[in-house]
């Protein structure tokens, strides 16, 4: 007997919630890897504006493994809800080739791409297209990260420099709590190697953060991309899960 769309959608919800456990572990590991006592900044004779960075601890492969588990659960949750929407239209559908249709970013799904959700209703297909249009950047990254981790290679973690600024976290009549936050506009930054030279001559506050690399082209992404992916999946599930309960997208529980 085929599972009901409701049970399949419940599995999608559980898988997404499970991904959040991995996300918390990943954030904690990132915090440990980004501690400044993992690095030394050695002076250069005759040039006080530059320092040589020396690694006392390189990024642990555990980062890549936790990221892979997180990405796998997020992609699975989207595949589960795609199966739920297909069975809603055709309870006897063959689900062996059903998966969430990522397609190409910024372009509506073509006939071949729609084949991964064959028999889905027009309403559900349009809901997928709305999610792809609005959250396409995060969904596209999810697909790229997942394809590499699943089929080819662990997503390598690397260290990179990030220009930072002081930000006010909390202000009271008697005190102000501040933290160092990355400046915007530096989403993709190249790795820094052991022995690399850091230039402080412009007075910019700089810290070392962890990012991840895609094998194709060696494209690098800051760890904040993980939050972009997670939010894209959350919003996409909020768009699609209610459709598995009934034909009224206003029903259902949001994540």
Protein architecture, described:
- With 255 residues, the protein is an alpha+beta fold.
- The chain is 44% helix and 20% strand.
- It contains six helices and seven strands.
- The chain has helices spanning 5-33, 62-89, 111-114, 122-134, 136-152, 225-245; strands at 39-44, 47-55, 157-171, 176-182, 197-199, 205-213, 220-222.
- A four-stranded antiparallel β-sheet has the order 4-3-6-7, with no helix packed on it.
- Helix 1 (5-33) runs antiparallel to helix 6, helix 2 (62-89) runs parallel beside helix 6 (225-245) and helix 4 runs antiparallel to helix 6 (225-245).
- It is elongated.
- It starts with a helix and ends in a 10-residue tail after the last helix.
Task: List the defining traits of the structure above.
alpha+beta, 7 strands, three-stranded antiparallel sheet, 255 residues, 20% strand, four-stranded antiparallel sheet
């Amino acid at each position: 007997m085929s599972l009901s769309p409701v049970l399949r959608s419940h599995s999608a919800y559980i898988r997404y919630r499970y991904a959040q456990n991995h996300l918390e572990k990943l954030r904690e590991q990132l915090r440990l890897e980004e501690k400044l006592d993992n690095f030394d900044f050695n002076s250069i004779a005759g040039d006080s504006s530059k320092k040589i960075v020396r690694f006392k601890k390189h990024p642990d492969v555990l980062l890549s493994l936790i990221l892979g588990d997180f990405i796998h659960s997020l992609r699975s949750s989207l595949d589960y809800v795609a199966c739920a929407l297909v069975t809603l239209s055709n309870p006897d559908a063959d689900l062996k080739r059903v998966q969430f249709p990522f397609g190409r970013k910024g372009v509506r799904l073509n006939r071949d791409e729609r084949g991964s959700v064959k028999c889905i209703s027009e309403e559900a297909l349009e809901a997928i297209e709305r999610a792809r249009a609005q959250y396409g950047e995060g969904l596209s990254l999810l697909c790229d990260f997942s394809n590499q981790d699943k089929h080819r290679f662990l997503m390598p973690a690397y260290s990179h420099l990030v220009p930072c600024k002081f930000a006010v976290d909390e202000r009271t009549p008697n005190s102000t709590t501040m933290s160092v936050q990355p400046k915007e506009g530096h989403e993709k930054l190249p790795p820094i190697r052991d022995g690399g030279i850091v230039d402080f001559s412009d007075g910019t506050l700089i810290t070392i953060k962890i990012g991840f690399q895609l094998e194709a082209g060696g494209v690098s992404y800051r760890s904040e991309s993980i939050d972009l992916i997670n939010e894209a999946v959350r919003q996409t599930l909020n768009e699609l899960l209610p459709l598995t309960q009934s034909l009224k997208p206003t029903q259902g529980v949001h994540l």
